[in-house]
């Protein structure tokens, strides 16, 4: 209920912000995109419930805690410090998972569903193929066991990750000074938008979803797109038709279509 409540509140806030102060003043094609983007997250959720009916990130964390599995379970750390370390470590895992899904052709086939959205707003944060969501959950569960993450840390991480994804995919305008200050710690919409550029050298940058430090540390940070925030083109060069890229059936079968020139 905490996760759902936080998701609905943040989603509604960003969606309203996009209406009042959009960053890119262009037709957002909401009537085409929103129904399928929102329906896709429903399919993803149902898929996880069917394939992992009795497990999940929090259940695995409880199991690790009960059996004292993982690195953090073997260390005598203050609870607050252990939770902070766990959240930072999980964020690093998500960063490298994201890079892996760009690097390996088989995984890119799944992840390109996320990148074929030709507009970027808060619903784009929900646009993932169900097979990718399933694999991501498996990776997260393994990381939780290896690290020995406390269940409370998992809840806080999930709420933070979901909220930040909704935020940094948003078509929202931030004052330049605030954006510049925030991105020293967090991923901002202007920073993440570069990752959705049609330019190969740009969509292979800025992989972070929450903490911005990983892109700086591991050399994948780019401050601004070559064409500027208002001039850059969103999506992948091979699929530019709004009717196609907003079609749910097409999105579900996209991993099995030819890789074409957007393959990595």
What does it look like?
The chain has 13 helices and no strands. It has helices at residues 2-20, 30-51, 57-67, 79-103, 105-115, 130-147, 151-168, 176-182, 189-193, 200-203, 213-217, 242-245, 248-253. The longest helix is centred in the middle third of the chain and has 25 residues, at 79-103. The chain starts with a helix and ends in an 11-residue tail after the last helix. Helix content is 59%, strand content 0%. It is mainly α and 264 residues long. It has one domain (2-22, 34-259). The protein is globular. Helix 3 runs antiparallel to helix 7 (151-168), helix 4 (79-103) packs antiparallel against helix 6 (130-147) and helix 4 (79-103) crosses helix 7.
């Amino acid at each position: 209920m905490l996760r759902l409540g936080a998701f609905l509140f943040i989603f509604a806030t960003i969606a309203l912000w996009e209406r009042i102060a959009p960053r890119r003043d262009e037709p957002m094609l909401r009537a085409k995109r929103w129904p399928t983007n929102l329906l896709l997250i429903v399919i993803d959720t149902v898929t996880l419930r069917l394939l992992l009916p009795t497990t999940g990130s929090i259940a695995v964390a409880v199991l690790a805690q009960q059996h004292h599995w993982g690195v953090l379970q073997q260390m005598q750390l203050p609870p607050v410090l252990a939770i902070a370390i766990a959240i930072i470590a999980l964020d690093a895992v998500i960063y490298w998972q994201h890079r892996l899904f760009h690097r390996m052709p088989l995984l890119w086939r799944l992840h390109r569903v996320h990148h074929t959205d030709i507009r970027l707003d808060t619903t784009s944060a929900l646009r993932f193929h169900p097979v990718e969501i399933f694999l991501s959950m498996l990776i997260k569960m393994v990381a939780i066991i290896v690290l020995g993450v406390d269940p409370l840390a998992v809840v806080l991480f999930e709420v933070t990750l979901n909220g930040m994804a909704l935020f940094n995919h948003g078509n929202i305008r931030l004052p330049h000074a605030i954006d510049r200050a925030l991105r020293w710690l967090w991923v901002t919409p202007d920073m993440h938008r570069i990752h959705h550029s049609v330019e190969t050298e740009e969509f292979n940058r800025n992989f972070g979803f929450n903490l911005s430090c990983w892109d700086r540390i591991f050399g994948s940070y780019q401050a601004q797109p070559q064409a500027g925030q208002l001039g850059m083109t969103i999506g992948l060069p091979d699929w530019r038709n709004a009717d196609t890229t907003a079609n749910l059936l097409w999105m579900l079968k996209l991993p099995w279509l030819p890789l074409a020139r957007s393959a990595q």
